[in-house]
Design goal:
Radius of gyration: 20 Å
Organism: Lingula anatina (Brachiopod)
Number of strands: 13
Distance between the termini: 38 Å
Largest sheet: 7 strands, mixed
Family: Belongs to the GIPC family.
Protein name: PDZ domain-containing protein GIPC1
InterPro entries: GH2_GIPC, GIPC1-3_GH1, GIPC1/2/3, PDZ, PDZ_sf
Order of helices and strands: EEEHEEEEEEEHEEEHHHHH
Number of helices: 7
Structural class: alpha+beta
Pfam family, one: PDZ
C-alpha cells in the first residue's frame, strides 16, 4: 500500500433424535448466540479490554460440551475438546466414524442449508451443531458473459471453499444445478481443494469475459425433508449479536476463548464483512474480526495501514482506497456512528 509506506470416538447419545427435525434441546433460531466478539487484548466500546480467558484455562467452568447431528439425519453426538474449526470437524468425524474431509460445513440450530446460520468463528455455548457432509458431485459448463459472476464465496476453515450467496439475476443465478452451499471443487482441470475463498474468487475473476469454463461442485447431502420450511433465499440473514450470551470464540492460531458478545464489535465486523464482499467477493467473519482487532487499537489510517501491511493480511493486497473504506467503518463503529446508521436503516 504505497500511500502509507511499507506497509476412540466420541460417545453417541443412545436415543437418536427424529431425522431432519430440530432437536428439542437446541435453542430457538431467534435466540441463537453465535455472536461476533473480540480477541484477547482488543479494545472495546469503552476502550477497555474484554474479560476473556482461554477456554482451556477456565478451571472454574465445567468442560464445554456441544451436541451435534448430521444435517441429513443421524443420532445425536456429544462433541468436546476442540479449540479451532479443524479440530471441531475432526471430533465430529470421529463421533460418526467418517473422514473429516467428508464435512463441507456446519450450521447452528438448523439442519437446513441456511447461510445466515453458518458456523464461523463463534459458537454459542447453547448452540446445537449440524454437520453438512458431501453429497452428489455436479459438473457444469459456464459461459462468463459478464465481468461479475454474482457469487459470494466463503470457506469452512478446513480446506473447502463454497458458495455462500448467489446474486439474483446474475450469470450464476441462471446456471442450473449450482446452489448455495456447493463446494467449488475444481475449475477446468485445476483442483481447488485446500484453497482459501479469496484464491477461488481471484481465479473466477481472472477468467476472461466470453470464456466458457467447466466447474465441478459438490453439494451437501440432502434428505427428503431437507427443503421443507422457509428458504434463506441466498440473501444475508440477520444475526442476534449482542444478546449477552457467552460464546466460544475459535481461532486459527491460539487457544479458544469464552467471551461475551459486544454490540459495537458485531456491527463493525458485519460492516467490514460487507466491504470484503464488495471488494473481493468473499465472506469471512474471522478475517473481519482480525481487521477490526488491528484497527481498534490504532488512532489514524496511516498507523492502521502500516499494521495491516506488517500483519499476515499483507498477502491480500488491499488497495489504498479499500483500506480507507475499512478505516472508515472501524472509525464509525468506535464512535458509535455505525450503530446509529444501522438502527436508522432498520426503521425504514
Amino acid at each position: 500500500m504505497p500511500l502509507f509506506g511499507k506497509k476412540k470416538r466420541e460417545q453417541l447419545v443412545e436415543q437418536p433424535q427424529a431425522t431432519n427435525q430440530e432437536p428439542p434441546s437446541a435453542p430457538p433460531p431467534g435466540e441463537m448466540s453465535n455472536a461476533v466478539s473480540q480477541a484477547n487484548g482488543s479494545a472495546t466500546k469503552g476502550g477497555q479490554k474484554p474479560n476473556v480467558q482461554p477456554a482451556a484455562q477456565q478451571n472454574n467452568r465445567p468442560k464445554l460440551v456441544f451436541h451435534c447431528q448430521q444435517a441429513h439425519g443421524s443420532p445425536t453426538g456429544i462433541i468436546t475438546g476442540f479449540t479451532n474449526v479443524k479440530e471441531l470437524y475432526q471430533k465430529i468425524a470421529e463421533c460418526y466414524d467418517m473422514p473429516a474431509s467428508e464435512i463441507l460445513f456446519c450450521t447452528l440450530n438448523t439442519h437446513k442449508v441456511d447461510m445466515a446460520r453458518l458456523l464461523g468463528g463463534q459458537i454459542g455455548l447453547e448452540d446445537f451443531i449440524f454437520a453438512h457432509v458431501k453429497g452428489q458431485p455436479k459438473e457444469v459448463d459456464i459461459t462468463k458473459s459478464e465481468e461479475a459472476l454474482g457469487l459470494t464465496i466463503t470457506d469452512n476453515g478446513a480446506g473447502y471453499a463454497f458458495i455462500k450467496r448467489i446474486k439474483e439475476g446474475s450469470v450464476m443465478d441462471k446456471v442450473p444445478l449450482i446452489d448455495v452451499g456447493d463446494h467449488i471443487e475444481k475449475i477446468n482441470e485445476t483442483s481447488l481443494v485446500g484453497s482459501r475463498h479469496y484464491e477461488v474468487a481471484k481465479m473466477l475473476k481472472e477468467i476472461p469475459v466470453g470464456t466458457t469454463f467447466t466447474m465441478r461442485v459438490v453439494g451437501p447431502m440432502k434428505s427428503g425433508f431437507s427443503n421443507i420450511g422457509p428458504s434463506s433465499g441466498g440473501k444475508k440473514g440477520g444475526s442476534n449479536y449482542g444478546s449477552g450470551k457467552e460464546t466460544l470464540r475459535l481461532r486459527s492460531k491460539g487457544p479458544a476463548t469464552v467471551e461475551v458478545p459486544d454490540e459495537v464489535v458485531s456491527v463493525a465486523t458485519d460492516k467490514i464483512n460487507s466491504l470484503l464482499e464488495s471488494f473481493m467477493g468473499i465472506n469471512d467473519t474471522e478475517l473481519s474480526q482480525t481487521i477490526w482487532e488491528i484497527g481498534s487499537q490504532k488512532d489514524n489510517p496511516h498507523d492502521f495501514a502500516l499494521a495491516m501491511d506488517n500483519s499476515d493480511l499483507g498477502m491480500f493486497g488491499f488497495t489504498d482506497d479499500f483500506v480507507f473504506d475499512l478505516w472508515g467503518a472501524i472509525s464509525d463503529a468506535k464512535s458509535g456512528r455505525l450503530k446509529e446508521v444501522a438502527e436508522f436503516s432498520e426503521q425504514f
